[in-house]
Specification:
It is a single chain. With 430 residues, this protein is α+β, with helices and mostly antiparallel strands. It folds into four domains: 92 residues, Rossmann fold; 65 residues, ATP-grasp fold, A domain (Dna Ligase, domain 1, 2-Layer Sandwich); 129 residues, ATP-grasp fold, B domain (D-amino Acid Aminotransferase, Chain A, domain 1, 2-Layer Sandwich), CATH 3.30.470; 84 residues, Alpha-Beta Complex (Glycinamide Ribonucleotide Synthetase, Chain A, domain 4). It has 14 helices and 23 strands. Helix 6 crosses helix 7. The longest helix is centred in the middle third of the chain and has 21 residues. The chain is globular and about 55 Å long. The chain starts with a strand and ends in a 19-residue tail after the last strand.
């Protein structure tokens, strides 16, 4: 089997890494890929942008590719699955009509209301002044309606902060096409990520994870694409997961079916779990999460290609239960100085082999090969992931590997997993 992975982040390297272990997989093409996929077994980088659909279609034909896995949300929102659709080609990723679940927060809010899915109270505005007039109490959450790479959310603790966030959205800070804003009530609790696979007929959750979105320790500062993650999260009991399946995942699939949307891929529910154990949806994503995918796939025992193909072929219900390794996986993101704001590229990275010798897996995100060197090429550079028998062991292993890696301006949080280690009352920003 030849597989195409569209994307160049840590999520895509993790997918390539997992698929490369399968004897059923002959070759993996990554477009455009990164420094990690360039050296991953069975992988070959092809410098095609994720939005160059004609070039991707030609590559599929030239290489006789049978499975396409779309990593990022942007090509999904633009309709890559619709464009590439052809007989004998399996595409893991929803069609454009399904990807709007992530591409428009206001659409998702209407969708949840229709399906009676629990979520924060909200209002949508297409005018900045009207949005500002709506805000009378704080804290409040201000969200760009469209895609913003995980950075379009502001938890405003002052009226001025909320107004500034609204202005930034309408002035095109995240996307010049953002012409609306969603304002939500602030929820208290712990945020978790539930990634579920669906073939449009059945929906099955993967291990629940928690990530740290804020750039600063103690979950302070602006939101990023994610500074670290771990799985499974201990706050999700089997009973609570069953509740999430019944209140969130099943109604989501049912409403997609009701709307005539043939959704085959990942439904990612970002949830806030209240202190009393009630789940509410903060947002939906239409793809594997990053960095959650890295620890989740580190514990997956069922061959990944079996799950992906079952989703594409609408036979997910026929598969046995998904098998997982015992233990815990923790992933720490190493970022460039200045991220999520301006940062420099081109810094030489060293210590990868030494880090891997500790037993950790190093997933590349913002990296590329330049002459004989591996250099930084993005805000989030690496995801250092370790598996242990428990949280303490996994965290110690992960940070031991982190300490081996060097590059100018390296930045990372030292408190990934803080919610597990004696901080059960943590209040997490949305």
């Amino acid at each position: 089997m030849k597989i195409l992975i569209v994307g160049n982040g840590g999520r895509e390297h993790a997918i390539a890494w997992k698929l490369s272990h399968s004897p059923q997989v002959q070759q993996i093409f990554c477009t455009p890929g990164n420094g990690g996929t360039a050296t991953q077994a069975k992988c070959q980088n092809i410098p095609i942008p994720v939005t160059d659909f004609p070039a991707l279609k030609q590559l599929i034909a030239d290489q006789n590719i049978s499975l396409v896995v779309v990593g990022p949300e942007v090509p999904l929102a633009l309709g890559i699955t619709d464009y590439l659709k052809q007989p004998n080609l399996k595409i893991f990723g929803p069609i454009k009509a399904g990807a709007i679940l992530e591409a428009s927060k206001s659409w998702a809010k209407d969708f949840m209301a229709e399906a009676n899915i629990p979520t924060a109270k909200s209002a949508t505005f297409t005018n900045a002044e009207t949005a500002k007039e709506y805000i009378t109490e704080i804290p409040i959450v201000v969200k760009a309606d469209g895609l913003a790479a995980g950075k379009g959310v502001t938890v405003a603790t002052t009226i001025e902060m909320a107004h500034n966030a609204i202005d930034a959205i309408f002035q095109g800070e995240f996307d010049e096409n953002h012409q609306s804003v969603v304002i939500e009530e602030f929820l208290i609790g712990q945020e978790i990520s539930v990634l579920a696979l669906t073939d449009g007929l059945t929906i099955r959750p993967l291990l629940p994870a928690q990530d740290h979105k804020a750039v600063g320790e103690g979950d302070t500062g602006p939101n990023t694409g994610g500074m670290g993650a771990y799985t499974p999260t201990p706050i999700i009991s089997p009973e609570l997961m069953a509740d999430i399946q019944r209140k969130v995942l099943e109604p989501t699939l049912t409403n997609l079916q009701k709307r005539g949307i043939d959704y085959r891929g990942v439904v990612y529910a970002g949830l806030m779990i209240s202190p009393t154990g009630e789940p509410k949806v903060l947002e939906f994503n239409c793809r594997f999460g990053d960095p959650e995918t890295q620890p989740i796939l580190s514990l997956l025992e069922t061959p990944l290609e079996e799950l992906l193909l079952a989703c594409c072929e609408q036979r997910l219900a026929e598969l046995p239960p998904i098998n997982w390794k015992s233990g815990v996986a923790v992933s720490v993101v190493l970022a460039s100085a200045g991220y999520p704001e301006a940062y420099e590229k081109g810094k030489v990275i060293s210590g990868i082999e030494k880090a891997e010798a500790t037993g950790a897996t190093i997933f590349h995100a913002g990296t590329k090969l330049h002459t004989q060197n591996l250099i930084t090429d993005g805000g989030r550079v690496l995801g250092v992931t370790a598996v242990g028998a428990n949280f303490i062991e996994a965290k110690v292993k992960a940070y031991a590997a982190v300490d081996c890696i060097k590059f100018e301006g390296i930045y990372y949080r030292r408190d990934i997993g803080s919610r597990v280690f004696g901080n059960s009352e943590f209040i997490n920003p949305q």
